[in-house]
Specification:
Number of helices: 8
Number of strands: 12
Protein name: Leucyl/phenylalanyl-tRNA--protein transferase
Function: Functions in the N-end rule pathway of protein degradation where it conjugates Leu, Phe and, less efficiently, Met from aminoacyl-tRNAs to the N-termini of proteins containing an N-terminal arginine or lysine.
Largest sheet: 8 strands, mixed
Radius of gyration: 18 Å
Helix content: 25-40%
GO molecular function: leucyl-tRNA--protein transferase activity
Keywords: Acyltransferase, Cytoplasm, Transferase
Family: Belongs to the L/F-transferase family.
Length: 248
């Protein structure tokens, strides 16, 4: 199987549909994780995914798992947690800590992480440009001091949010972060959330599989449309705590 190679002097990608039909979505190998190349990739439904020590690999999975925010399902158990548990959910309060925590998650069947140091720095760069966002869930300790308990991050282009990863240091923290992030993103104007691969966790929220052609049509329409309001930063939801500001 011959894999196209990318050079650093171009941001163009090989044909995505050929990659899906002939290489199970393996689009290309090589190149840098520059902000321009990443944004070009995401607008075409392509994302980087590789292990520490390997060259950069670019993928476009089909079918694609997406979540339409207005269809997001919050189960009864999580609804109860959202009502009764003390927490604060914020946006863009500590992106580096969130992506580092996601990199540190140990996942079944994986010995390492695809969120390499190179990837972390690349996405921090996107965050500084306003194209990558983090949502944080904070829990109070016995002294009422808020500590980072979970969260998620992703890339935003136009009205599309490309979810990348989530983590939980405490029970339910990533679920609370996601459940609060989705309605906030709707307020901002996000119309589709790319989940890349299907998981039981995302399926419980209402994710669904769609053909890549359908996904690409949505990208062509929505990535060039402005949000109703910027995703911004600050707190977006809280329950049963006095707001004194999160600690790192």
């Amino acid at each position: 199987m011959e894999i196209p190679f990318l050079y650093d002097d171009t941001t163009a990608f090989p044909d995505v549909f050929e990659a899906i039909e002939e290489r199970d979505g393996f689009v290309a190998i090589g190149g840098s994780l520059s902000a321009q190349r990443l944004l070009t990739a995401y607008k075409q439904g392509i994302f980087p995914w590789f292990s520490e020590g390997d060259p950069v690999c670019w993928w476009a999975l089909s079918p694609r798992t997406v979540l339409y925010p207005e269809k997001c399902h919050i189960g009864r158990s999580l609804q109860k947690t959202l009502r009764n548990k003390p927490y604060l959910v914020t946006v863009n309060q500590n992106f580096p800590a969130v992506i580092a925590a996601c990199a540190g998650v140990r996942r079944p069947g994986q010995s390492g992480t695809w969120i390499t140091e190179e990837m972390q720095q690349a996405y921090i760069g996107l965050h500084e440009l306003g194209h990558a966002h983090s949502f944080e869930c904070w829990y109070p300790d016995e002294n009422g001091v808020l500590n980072l308990a979970g969260g998620l991050y992703g890339v935003q282009i136009g009205r599309v949010f490309f979810g990348e990863s989530m983590f939980a240091l405490r029970p339910d923290a990533s679920k609370i972060a996601f459940a609060c992030a989705v309605p906030y993103m709707v307020e901002c104007g996000i119309e589709i959330i790319d989940c890349q691969q299907n998981t039981d966790h995302l399926a419980r929220f209402g994710s669904e599989l769609i053909a890549f052609e359908t996904f690409q049509t949505a990208l062509n329409d929505l990535t060039d449309k402005a949000l109703d309001k910027p995703i911004g930063s600050g707190w977006i939801a809280q329950s049963k705590i006095v707001l004194e500001g999160p600690s790192e």
